[in-house]
Amino acid sequence: MGLTLTQSAAGGPVTVAQVKAYIGIESSEWDAMLAGFIAAATAHAQNYLGKAIGSQEWALSLDGFADEIALPLGPVTDVGAVTYLDADRAEQTLDDGVYILDLVSTPQRIVRDPEESWPATANVPNAVTVAFTTGFATAPAEVVQAIQMLVAFWWENRSAVNVGNITSVLPFGVEALLQPLRRIVI
């Protein structure tokens, strides 16, 4: 199984101007550094949540069909196409009437319609590809606040921090803000 980002989110949930106002910076000489902090904080939040921040397009590659195909990340907003290599290794697009898109379950998934069957695929790696769109259209306020807090923390602690054996410290409240939105798979 492979997961490939095919189109990243345009912009981000927090702008340099927002962070500068949050921290109280007026000069533009630090904009590039702040932009890097924002990118890193956004990636941290996305990895912690297990959800995409901002609309992103992904391709999930599978060796074959299964009765259920879990869609990683989330929230999934659209499945663009399901393509597969047929027995002759020719690429085909699956009719969307063969499956049901379940956007209620966690993780969200594609489920084979019980009255349909999957087509035969070539016996090769990555014979099936699911193109899907995922991510919050607008980042929740908790995510925006957590990113701003993390950027402010990094701004105030630009030199390496090492307290005893702790080499990575997050400011109080970042994970508390993100925890209720975290993707939990049972």
**What is the residue-averaged pLDDT?**
89
Quantity of strands, as a count: 8
Main sheet properties = 5 strands, antiparallel
Task: Specify the number of helices.
Answer: 4
The CATH class designation of the largest domain is: Mainly Alpha
Based on secondary structure, the structural category is alpha+beta
Fill in the CATH topology of the largest domain: Hypothetical protein yqbg
CATH architecture of the largest domain: Orthogonal Bundle
Unreliably modeled segments = 162-167
Tell me the span between the first and last alpha carbons: 20 Å
Strand order of the largest sheet: 1-2-8-4-5
What integer value in Å does the Rg equal? Answer: 20 Å
Quickly count the domains.
2
Which quaternary structure do these chains form?
single chain
The helicity comes to 25-40%
Strand content: 15-25%
Descriptive overview:
- The protein is of the alpha+beta class and 186 residues long.
- The protein folds into two domains: 2-53 and 138-181, Hypothetical protein yqbg; 57-134, no CATH class.
- It is built from four helices and eight strands.
- The strands form two sheets. The chain has a five-stranded antiparallel sheet, with no helix packed on it. A three-stranded antiparallel sheet has the order 3-7-6, with no helix packed on it.
- Strand 6 and strand 7 form a beta hairpin.
- The longest helix is centred in the first third of the chain and has 19 residues, at 31-49.
- It is elongated.
- Mean pLDDT is 89; it is low at 162-167.
